[in-house]
Amino acid sequence: MRAPDSDLPIVFDGVTVKAGAVTILDGISLRFEPGAPTVLIGPNGAGKTTLLRAAMGLFPPAAGRITWGGRDQVPPTRRAFVFQRPAMLRRSASGNVRYALASAGVARADRAVRARDLLERVGLAGLADRPARRLSGGEQQRLAIARALARNPTVLFLDEPTASLDPASTKTMEDLIAAITASGVKVVMTTHDLAEARRLAGEVVLLHRGRVLEAGPADSFFTAPKTDEARRFTAGELLV
After folding, report:
1. Of 106, 120, 219, nearest to 152 (Cα)?
2. How many helices (H) and strands (E) does the chain have?
3. 1-78+153-240, what's its fold?
């Protein structure tokens, strides 16, 4: 029997994640389906990054269950994660991507062409030979996405992909996320920027203190939030 070619849907069923005695996620039930990006929002410490890492399979639940495409304990071969501050290898931009391709099991003879295609995809073809650590912050983020795409994922997790970027770099990153989505890759990302969530999200999940306060289509979330917390948060009030 051929294995499913996607990890979607990703389903959280009453998932709790702890660090020692501290509960970081508390009884989370969510479902990530193919389609437009799902954007996680909420104050610092809400559990957004932990939720991404749990969806990637990096944090085992203390309670509850996570399934990928209806399966338990699935190796993350069709999932990829880009951290808020990705580490760059001491290699060229192209060398970073070729290393990711090698790690993904791509044949050596195919890596140069694939690396060139991926750098073109993220707008870095002209910087292929530049040392990765000499790239700007926005360029490093796009290079990290190219490395992630080397895995040919069906799901891409992005943790604050535009944090600390200037407006031009933010626009470039958002255009790239839209293009990745259009190619059929499901994007699940975190952001503190409500305007960015409005621009990109198909679905919004509002987290606070490790719990889901509200989740649903972005249009209705921003125009007619169902909970008092969501109304206050979208109005710019602090959740404490």
Report:
1. 106
2. 8, 9
3. Rossmann fold (3.40.50)
How much is the CA Rg of the chain, to the nearest whole Å? Answer: 18
* 63-68, strands of its sheet edge to edge: 22-32, 10-19, 63-68
CB-CB contact of 88 with 132 (8 Å): yes
pTM over 0.70: yes
pLDDT digits (tens, 9 = 90+) for 100-159: 999 999 999 999 999 999 999 999 999 999 999 999 999 999 999 999 999 999 999 999
Contact 12, 30 (CB under 8 A): yes
C-alpha span between 84 and 87 (Å, rounded): 10
Query: What token pair was written down for 94?
Result: 């192209």
**Residue written as token pair 């870095």:** 124
Number of alpha carbons in the 13 Å side-chain half-sphere of residue 139: 18
- Residue 150's φ and ψ, nearest 5 degrees, are -60, -25
Question: Residue 62 is encoded by which pair of tokens?
Answer: 């203390």
Residue type, 211: R
One DSSP character per residue, 125-193 reads GGGTTSBGGGS-HHHHHHHHHHHHHTT--SEEEEESTTTT--HHHHHHHHHHHHHHHHTT-EEEEE-S-
- 165: CB partners within 8 A, 6+ apart: 137, 138, 141, 173
Question: What is the phi/psi pair of residue 198, to 5°?
Answer: -60, -40
Q: Which of 15, 39, 66 is nearest to 210 (CA)?
A: 15
